[in-house]
TetR family transcriptional regulator
Amino acid sequence: MTTAGTDGPTDRESKKRRTRLRLHTAAVRLAVERGYQATTADEIAAAAGVSPRTFFNYFATKEDAIVGSDPDRPARLHRAVVERPSHERPAEALRAVLTDQVREMEGDPDLWRMRSTLAASTPELSTRLAGAGDRLETALVEAVYLRAGTDPADDLATGLSARLAMAAVRAAFHQHRAAGADGSLADRLDTAFDAAGVR
Amino acid sequence: MTTAGTDGPTDRESKKRRTRLRLHTAAVRLAVERGYQATTADEIAAAAGVSPRTFFNYFATKEDAIVGSDPDRPARLHRAVVERPSHERPAEALRAVLTDQVREMEGDPDLWRMRSTLAASTPELSTRLAGAGDRLETALVEAVYLRAGTDPADDLATGLSARLAMAAVRAAFHQHRAAGADGSLADRLDTAFDAAGVR
DNA sequence: TATCTTTTTGCACACACTGCAAGTTTTGAC
DNA sequence: GTCAAAACTTGCAGTGTGTGCAAAAAGATA
């Protein structure tokens, strides 16, 4: 029973995608409703209509189900930075790539807001987010060193530029949140890049 | 049987301190020898000569026993920044406080090296370290806003200065490590602060 | 010595997570 | 439509982390 047409391209892929999304949203909802600690993996599975064992086929940990951060984003941005026009200086390349990325995230502001609200209230999740940010920063640092072709032991400035760029991103996010998610995040980011000397 | 004299001031406090240290060193040693995952909390307890249950009286998690990072360092540095002479600009205060802190860490280079080696090889621990760094950054951001008396929603520059300072610290550490922990970390940090515009 | 406090320990338990093997669904070829 | 291969789901059994509780051991106090 495939009933193609009511459901669009009903292949295995899309079913998996929907199951994953059901699990993720169930995880976030339950965590918001009753707290992260008080929510068990079994409950999330039940809410999404799958067996407990299946939950762990989709997410390695309970935290992953809530944060749901893309594990290969660092690699993707690394590539994006490396593939930028070679005449650009590190700061320019980083700025372009990170601006694109933030524009993408602006597409789903609710998700971002729920995530950061949850993270603010539960240390496990904020640690998790910090870890994801750190892996991203490391990937960007490697990317700019690759572009520059210099030795990290001698050249401090190149790696530093990537860390300054990430600092600007964090500052922009923080300000955005402090301002009640009002106004354009991309604009704030632009200001932050300028203030951080990323140009 | 207190035998004061063979052991120094043998009170309850010092016994606890030594037990904690035994657990920490046993945890680090075992994790280095056979890997983090392959080391169980029970084994750490046994190696330190205490019961498994006691292990968790000293450390909330296995990760804590290895990282052993001081949970109230953020609060301490927050205070240090706030208490700096009021004529100093944020960047100056941050630079002074972080320089002091790094000088302290330079006192035990072996510990730092083992930690970062372990963290580099096991994602759980690097996530943990990133989380600790993030909590520190957040504390410093709050501290400089407190000094400035401004609203984070309007004033981006103040919070950004704290994040730039932390970026400089990370860059200096990274370079130091890339250079085989050779030379003065404090010197590298000074260069990094200058390059990041923290002054 | 007697007593009060702190620490250690054992026990039972909830929950996260994994390997494995058996079931079910989906797919693609005929 | 039938059938076999591939992919996905599930149950089961087990390891390991981490917690509450109450009894035992150790240390401090007088």
Confidence is low (pLDDT under 50) at residues 1-7 of chain A.
